[in-house]
Design a protein that fits this description.
Blueprint lengths: L17 E5 L3 H12 L3 E6 L14 E2 L12 H9 L6 E3 L4 H12 L4 H15 L2 H9 L8 E10 L2 H5 L2 H9 L4 E5 L1 H6 L9 E11 L2 H14 L3 E4 L2 E7 L2 E7 L2 E4 L2 E4 L5 H7 L6 E12 L9 E3 L4 E6 L2 E10 L8 H14 L8 E11 L5 E4 L6 E5 L5 H16 L19
Parallel strand pairs: 1-2, 1-12, 2-8, 4-16, 5-14, 12-19
Antiparallel strand pairs: 3-7, 5-7, 6-7, 9-10, 10-11, 13-16, 13-17, 14-15, 15-16, 18-19
Bound molecules: flavin-adenine dinucleotide.
The site of flavin-adenine dinucleotide has 42 residues, from helix 1, strand 2, strand 13, strand 16 and strand 17.
Amino acid sequence: MTKANMKAKDKAPSGAYSVIVVGAGMVGIAAAMRMQEYGHQVTLVDRAGPAGGTSFGNAGILASSSVIPVTTPGIIRKAPKMLFNPLQPLFLRWGYLPRLLPWLIPYLRHANMKDTQRIAEALNPIIGQSLQDHQALAAGTIAERWIKPCDYTYIFKDRAAFDADKPMWDIRKAMGHDWIEYEDDAFAAYDPFMADSHRFGVAMQNHGMIASPGDYIADLAKVFTDRGGQMITAEVEAISHENGHVTGIRAGGESVSADRVILTTGAWSGTLAKQLGISIPLEAERGYHVELWHPNTMPKTPLMVAAGKFVITPMKDRIRLAGIVEFGGLKAAASEAPFKLLMHNVRQYMPDLKWGEETRWMGHRPAPTDSIPVIGDVPGIKGVFMGFGHHHVGLTGGPKTGQLLAMLASDIQPNMDLSAYDMRRFSK
Ligand SMILES: Cc1cc2nc3c(=O)[nH]c(=O)nc-3n(C[C@H](O)[C@H](O)[C@H](O)COP(=O)(O)OP(=O)(O)OC[C@H]3O[C@@H](n4cnc5c(N)ncnc54)[C@H](O)[C@@H]3O)c2cc1C
């Protein structure tokens, strides 16, 4: 048994700590459950309860092969045209541009082959075994019912559209991700759902999905409290420390003491990190979903529509269409145009689809400039750890990140190189 795979029942070498995990999204719930399994007293704090943030509304895909960042070579050429076309999945609230620029410029500097490769190599160890990581986290609990092993199928108008992106597929292959290609009649036989508009499908193997991410995390939180964990609903205002050691948190004007604090507040992590002297170039990449309840038909697997860069996931009792990148910060309300685009896609690609109720949601992907999550200890303050910044793959990478955070906070050194995730990279 490797240390990284240590079984939950293993005890932390230094005995039990009182631990506060701030943020009950996918990363936070995984960290809290793993800390609990190492024998610590764990309190999970979230201002909005379990899955109150981005982990609620994502596309639900355990997207192990999604190692390619948004900043691929060519994006700088394509992006301006996309911004002026409401049928393209990139939006900007123009008034936000001055605030965005200090983040955007270094972000776009990564749009080259060398960085794409480097980012993929950093993401793969965090997301590459996601289905198994989720199955291990939820094993034997009520939350297991939401995890569905399945293909994750990228669909294209034809083979030429797939071939156009060959260098990125070569990277996925080099990372060990296999697929089966379906063309023409074979594609229609594999899944007729989109076979009128698409002739080519790439079914990624060893993937999975969560049939209702909000319900899944709520179930995990119930398991956590049933096992003796404490869940508190409160806004954390500060992480307290004295003489280079963490002492706890301040929430709702009150102090709560702890030996260890783990910060997993996703796109909202910048302010709390800054108070600790850590400046992370973090933006909120706003994303959208529309749910069509009780549809007359569903795809067999989650589909990534490559041309429109959106996902259709067959969730419990509904289809969820999710995607879009919009820059506009954490505070602005949802925009109308991204919802219109998702509904336009429904009419364009699924003209015969019928459904009942419709629901809509907007959320914030936590996006560091280099598309690599921050996972590790906080320099200069013993006992504080951070895990956030998973961009488009935080549901996928949450369990592994939680496991790594729990090991570090339990004084166990994981047997993998964590230097790519170290927050010190931004202060060099
Ligand atoms: C449209 C869309 C589709 C996506 N699809 C996928 C997908 O298919 N697969 C995938 O892997 N990823 C997907 N993602 C990305 C994924 O959802 C995120 O990367 C992930 O949810 C981040 O998880 P997290 O735990 O870091 O943050 P969050 O889930 O945002 O959790 C952070 C929590 O911290 C709490 N919080 C913040 N500040 C405070 C504070 N001061 N005090 C107390 N609590 C606080 C918030 O309430 C929140 O609950 C998608 C994202 C979007 C927007």
